[in-house]
Write a structure and sequence with these properties.
two-stranded antiparallel sheet, 8 strands, 5 helices, six-stranded mixed β-sheet, single chain, alpha+beta, 144 residues
Length: 144
């Protein structure tokens, strides 16, 4: 199992954004199995903001998510992580192009496979509900 860094404590949201861009947007991040994961600067808004009304409108910066910003890279490289096939919420079915990585009991990183050796980052979050974790674990295992 990989060692995950301590929670990242920065002064404010722009500092987390700058750290994200330096760590992730300058070059692809490799996974343990050789997939180059690309990140866009706009991914920060999707990943580190939450919807206060659960209406998919991300309107509040999430310190809970941001403090784990450095965990994304580690999770992608973690050979001991649990991996599952993702879920398409709109189609209500498994999506074999999405890989869900679950580490540290409840930290989730989702990537979308574009080609056999490339992917794009989708999101990362703390699964703070037993139901969410149950749903993730019920999905098919990612083929090795």
């Amino acid at each position: 199992m990989e060692t995950y860094p301590p929670l990242l404590k920065l002064a404010q949201e722009p500092d987390y954004r700058a750290r994200f861009e330096i760590l992730y947007c300058e070059k692809p991040v490799p996974t343990f199995d050789g997939i180059a994961v690309r990140f866009r600067k706009s991914d920060f808004d999707h990943c580190f903001f939450e919807s206060t009304n659960r209406d998919r409108k991300k309107d509040k910066f999430s310190l809970l998510r941001a403090e784990r910003l450095e965990w994304i890279k580690v999770a992608l490289g973690d050979t001991s992580a649990d991996r599952f096939v993702g879920w398409d919420r709109d189609k209500r079915t498994c999506d074999k192009s999405r890989r869900v990585t679950l580490v540290c009991i409840n930290y989730v990183v989702v990537i979308e496979i574009v080609q056999i050796t490339t992917a794009r980052f989708v999101t990362a979050y703390v699964a703070d509900s037993p139901l969410t974790l149950h749903k993730i674990r019920q999905a098919p295992r990612w083929p090795t």
